[in-house]
Amino acid sequence: MESLPDFIRRQYEFAAHIRDPENQPAPADIEDRRMAIYRELFYNNVEGFLSGTFPVLRTLYNDTDWQLLVRDYFSHHRAQTPLFLEIPREFINWLKNERDTQANDLPFLRELAHYEWAELALSISEESTDQENVNPEGNLLTGIPVLSPLAWHLSYRFPVHRIGPDFIPEEPGEQPTNIVVYRNRQDAVGFMEVNPVTKRLLELISENSSKNGKLLLDCIALEMSHPQPQVVIAGGAEILAGLAAKDIILGTKINT
How large is the average pLDDT for residues 112-116? Predict the structure, then answer.
């Protein structure tokens, strides 16, 4: 720091104090009343945005513990973007990659934060459901199903969609919780819990470029060693139709 030009050094001191006023002194010769304006403005903006993006998580913390969590993030994370809408993604990355687990952390902290962040991420995504080379009226069994880029199939150890002040699990569920978060053609974001068969079907569709819906369901029947593959295909046809009704599946691929 001593080797830096004075104006750059003072900028670093200014930013360090705003981030961590308890441990970093303010630049010399700046009235504390003025510094307080910046301390409150920067921190309150970040805290307010996090509270708004993670409303369920916020309700599970008392004011003191929530402020400690946000201050820990604000003090130690170096964001890679100046965009306010990216603050929640930065928070998720900090929780996942930088913050050491604390003794009083909620066991589902990272998973619940990710689940809540997904809603914002999809709502601001620049991806579109208006895809070229897709027939929205195509037969999903004889055609190649196309998954919406605005549909994410996610798995969590905890039942994150049920967590709230009245349900705070201490242990993961016996089975993973599989959830599809999606944005439809009306730009409304929705959430849907799915069973393992639907999850597997979505995985196959996302990896697929040549097999029609029936062949994908045949694969699932084979993986399940189901004695009646036609039952799987019939049930799968209903699943495909339901996914299409929610714009999770956009239609079938048009051969070009």
Answer: 97
